[in-house]
Amino acid sequence: MQSQPVFNHRWLPWLLLLPQLAITLVFFLWPAAQAVWQSFLMEDAFGLSTEFVWFENFSVLLQDEIYHRSFATTFIFSIGVTALSMGGALLLAVMADQVIRGARVYRTLLVWPYAVAPAVAGVLWMFMFNPSIGILSYLLEQLGYDWNHFLNGDQAMLLVIIAAAWKQISYNFLFFLAGLQAIPRSLIEAAALDGAGPMKRFWTILFPLLSPTSFFLLVINVVYAFFDTFGIIHAVTQGGPGGSTSILVYKVFDDGFNGLDLGSSAAQSVILMAIVGALTVVQFRYIERKVQY
Amino acid sequence: MIENRPLLNLISHLILCLGVLVVAFPIWIAFVASTHAPEALNSGTVPLWPGDRFVLNYAMALGLETGQKTLNVNLISMLGNSLIMALGITIGKLLISMLAAYAIVFFRFRFRMLSFWLIFITLMLPVEVRIMPTFEVVADLGLLNSYSGLILPLIASATATFLFRQFFLTVPHELIEAARMDGAGPIRFFIDILLPLSRTNLAALFVIMFIYGWNQYLWPLLITTDEHYYTVVMSIQRMLAVGDAEVAWHLVMPSTLMAMLPPVLVVILMQRLFIKGLVETEK
């Protein structure tokens, strides 16, 4: 890693590493190995005996309509959250980058939702969309639109997307703003002198130069939508109505703890681990290129 | 500024103000709802302007005042538990990851890279993904319904270790040479030189980890069945799950706002550190 002078000691480095290694082994690697092992087992209906079934849990899963739907749901959810929060954040960041003064004030006013727990964000939006007392559902009703996310799956999906995107806007905003401010002013000035208007400058200079930031945020947002939004789903819709918001992470929990289908839940865990692994690799390849933002 | 276009500047400000309003709107509505009597909330639409029950509602939510309808949870103890969990996770993470990074960067020993990768691989295993088996391990260790159970499984953090490693690698060779020349051993070097140098990094990570710890939801939900260990974020859902009865929104909203206040305050008051931490943990 580097060739600087170092200390030589026989047991001290192990002592220093011990706490982290112990916790990693006990709470991370051992459970992950358990998940893999369990995904090859199947319990009978009464939980009395278990049988080693190779890949049967996986093949059952992959043929399961409900699991397919959960995948589709997760995709729609992630695309919605990513598009909404990145689009909104990019618009605000571009505006904040070009105002003459006040960019810092706007930053302060926009960063705090990052600190709101997903479950709390969900409750705040659920309250506003409450079919009987919510302010937004009332407004929609005035416009002749009937809102009830307890019954309508599409509306429930929209609600969780909005709540999840709301919380993530501040994160995207910070990174877009930093990315914009890192673009050399001289480039933009040169374009302005050549007669390019603000719109043209955005599409031909700012937007292409932001692509490393955008790509990085894309990965981060997908990871967020896949794994960190459990609280929103659990607090707001419980995966309902009729499984219409049951994203993959929620389904692992639901099948494991409520359905008590351990083999299937473990197999789903393994599939999810593979997805996180793939996303982490993508993220790291990006970092290795050392793009500035 | 590139060019002076007053109209463009005005439009930018308008869009930003609109954005700020949209982002703040849910909080405003929640705050308004937290200051009204239950009748005002359940009779049609939520009002848009604060009512006069601010003190009463918050006192009732905190259990300082009892009314005909109070929450069957103890908010003060839950806020305390959240604080213990958040601080436990934060301090634990900083401590173990700093020590581990120190060993990896400043010592040469067998299996050094293996240890690094073992720690690093945990990035790929968020709690949400391996819930069932982790729950079983914690149950087997008898850590259900305990602070250790709330804290320990969440404190292994590859991100913090990685960040400290990156930072330690930038420490100039001359410092280590000089320290060794003066006869300082590894422990002395750590305490007298490395620790003071890492102050800003520690503070920035502290902010990020505190938010992470405070906002934990799934884990406390799973491993606590004893009310004494409930944390505030996980309990919001419990306040809403009242079956067919009407939700006591005038008490849920004060609780919700109090649950989000500590991390939000940390972000706003320590904004510079927060942004530093955020940018560096993702690098």
UniProtKB/TrEMBL annotation, chain A:
Where in the numbering of this chain does the ABC transmembrane type-1 domain appear? Answer: 71-283
Task: Enumerate the InterPro entries for this protein.
Answer: MetI-like, MetI-like_sf, UgpAE/MalFG_permease
| UniProt topology in membrane | Multi-pass membrane protein
Report the PROSITE patterns cross-referenced here: ABC_TM1 (PS50928)
Cellular compartment(s): Cell inner membrane; Cell membrane
The family database entries (Gene3D superfamilies) matched by this protein are listed as: MetI-like
> What Pfam families does this protein map onto?
BPD_transp_1
- Has UniProt tagged this entry with the keyword Cell inner membrane? yes
UniProt keyword terms in alphabetical order: Cell inner membrane, Cell membrane, Membrane, Transmembrane, Transmembrane helix, Transport
Q: Which residues cross the membrane?
A: 12-33, 71-96, 108-128, 156-180, 201-227, 266-287
Keyword Nucleotide-binding listed? The answer is no
Q: How does it assemble?
A: The complex is composed of two ATP-binding proteins (UgpC), two transmembrane proteins (UgpA and UgpE) and a solute-binding protein (UgpB).
The record's annotation in NCBIfam families points to: PRK10561.1
Recorded family membership = Belongs to the binding-protein-dependent transport system permease family. UgpAE subfamily.
What is the protein name given in its UniProt record? sn-glycerol-3-phosphate transport system permease protein UgpA
Species, as recorded: Marinobacterium alkalitolerans
| Gene behind this protein | ugpA
TrEMBL record, chain B:
What does the record give as the function of this protein?
Part of the ABC transporter complex UgpBAEC involved in sn-glycerol-3-phosphate (G3P) import. Probably responsible for the translocation of the substrate across the membrane.
> Does the record's keyword annotation contain Cell membrane?
yes
Membrane-protein topology: Multi-pass membrane protein
Tell me where it mainly resides: membrane
Alphabetized, the UniProt keywords read: Cell inner membrane, Cell membrane, Membrane, Transmembrane, Transmembrane helix, Transport
Query: Where in the numbering of this chain does the ABC transmembrane type-1 domain appear?
Result: 79-270
Superkingdom, taxonomy of origin:
Bacteria
Per the record, the similarity remark reads: Belongs to the binding-protein-dependent transport system permease family.
Q: What is this protein called?
A: sn-glycerol-3-phosphate transport system permease protein UgpE
PROSITE patterns given in the database record: ABC_TM1
Q: Where in the cell is it found?
A: Cell inner membrane; Cell membrane
NCBIfam families assigned to the protein according to its UniProt record, in alphabetical order: PRK10973.1 (NF008210)
**Any transmembrane segments, and where?**
7-31, 83-107, 114-135, 147-168, 189-212, 247-269
Assembly information from the UniProt record: The complex is composed of two ATP-binding proteins (UgpC), two transmembrane proteins (UgpA and UgpE) and a solute-binding protein (UgpB).
Q: Quote the SUPFAM superfamilies the UniProt record gives.
A: MetI-like
